[in-house]
Specification:
CATH topology of the largest domain: Nucleotidyltransferase, domain 5
Number of helices: 14
Shape: globular
Number of strands: 16
Largest sheet: 7 strands, mixed
Protein name: Putative terminase
Structural class: alpha/beta
CATH class of the largest domain: Alpha Beta
Radius of gyration: 23 Å
Strand order of the largest sheet: 6-14-9-8-7-10-13
Distance between the termini: 43 Å
């Protein structure tokens, strides 16, 4: 399993070994042992009845109906962690196995899994730097580091070298929009236990999807401090599901902020039906505040800058928000393979959904300053922390 399905064909299925001029797939699975090979979904059936298939973490639903016995993740740090949440119960039921191979790429869901594996008797974890694998000679590594520093500058070049060759968890992903801000939040201990306070309303901020994920951030405001207490993400469900999720939580809600497409009206029987907003409010998700869509061509980058500016005031619950934090940390510019530069727009990946929902917050945010008085009194009594 690769991070994205569109990578599978280029990186594996049609890749050629430059040393042998043979397709890598033919080297791994010679035609003599195959019964069939489907080009469309990159699926191989072997003569002994076993099967093998390439999938992306962005289309893990392709495995529905063909429960795997084993899964190998390549570059899990870039993969959608929700895919593992979906597939791991299948492996448990089948008595299956899994392996995760990846570069570190920041303090993210891979780091969480690695830490868990190190502490579990049922997992094996190994971290190997370039000095331990003997793939590169010391003089090669010295030259590589010098080249990266010359290309990317001292700070970024050294961080990239430490990440790619020394398995450092500290560096942000190349092109990450919020990597520095999330790293600073970690350094300041603003990714910690952030409890819900019952006397303060909870506001929600959304990104909407049907085929793609729908994501929700849950926040409370205490003075000038923004407490990000919860995060939810799922895919393929209607408003009834999200209404149920919100009602199951103990929160008293304020407003629900949603992007402009909540105003879209669906077609039913050849006529326009209610808008998404009408449907959601009828199910109890109300009041909904529509965040207008900016008309200028730089709207996305303007929103990204709004997020950067507001992250310094945010405290994140490390348990309930871990998936959203990983999305923010991994949200990055698309890389131009031909020109070897970052493009001026984001890569659409699993991280986009959580990041877009947070951008809904940053663009639509209105300070709720009067909500913090009681909270500050509680803080002074030592029930939580103050800034």
């Amino acid at each position: 399993m690769l991070p994205q399905f569109n990578q599978c064909r280029k990186a594996v299925w049609e890749a050629v070994n430059p040393n042998t001029s043979m397709k890598r797939i033919d080297e791994a699975f010679p035609p003599e042992i195959r019964k069939s090979a489907r080009q469309t979904d990159m699926h191989i059936e072997f003569r002994n009845g076993s099967t093998w298939q390439l999938v992306g973490s962005d289309n893990y639903n392709a495995l529905v109906g063909t429960p795997p016995i084993g899964i190998v993740y390549s570059e899990y740090a870039l993969s959608d962690p929700q895919s593992w949440a979906y597939l791991s119960p299948i492996l448990e039921e089948n008595g299956g196995w899994s392996a995760f191979i990846s570069t570190s790429r920041g303090n993210n869901h891979l780091k969480r899994m690695y830490d868990f594996a190190c502490s579990s008797d049922n997992w094996f974890a190994q971290l190997m730097t370039a000095h331990e694998t003997d793939v590169f000679k010391p003089e090669q590594l010295k030259s590589i580091k010098a080249e990266m520093i010359a290309t990317f500058g001292s700070e970024l070049g050294e961080a990239l070298y430490n990440q790619e060759y020394l398995c450092s968890w500290e560096g942000a992903q190349p092109g990450s929009y919020y990597g520095k801000q999330i790293a600073l939040a970690r350094k300041d201990n603003r990714i910690t236990e952030v409890p819900w306070t019952s006397g303060i309303e909870v506001y929600t901020y959304w990104d909407l999807g049907v085929d793609d994920s729908t994501t929700v951030w849950f926040m409370q405001f205490a003075g000038m401090q923004i407490r990000v207490i919860d995060y939810y993400e799922n895919t393929g469900f209607g408003w009834e599901h999200y209404s149920k999720i919100l009602k199951e939580k103990p929160y008293t809600y304020g407003d629900h902020y949603m992007p402009h497409d909540v105003e879209v009206r669906e077609m039913s029987g050849g006529e326009f039906a209610d808008s998404r907003k009408d449907t959601a409010e009828a199910l109890g998700i109300r009041p909904i505040i529509t965040v207008p869509r900016a008309r200028d061509s730089q709207a996305v980058m303007t929103g990204i800058n709004s997020v950067r500016n507001i992250l310094s005031r945010c405290w994140f619950d490390k348990t309930k928000c871990w998936q959203g934090i990983s999305a923010l940390e991994g949200y990055r510019a698309e890389y131009d393979e031909e020109k070897k530069v970052m493009k001026n727009h984001p890569l659409h990946s699993w991280e986009s959904h959580g990041a877009d929902a947070f951008r809904t917050f940053a663009v639509g945010y209105t300070p709720v300053l009067d909500k913090g008085a009681d909270w500050r009194k509680k803080v002074n009594k030592g029930t939580w922390r103050s800034t």
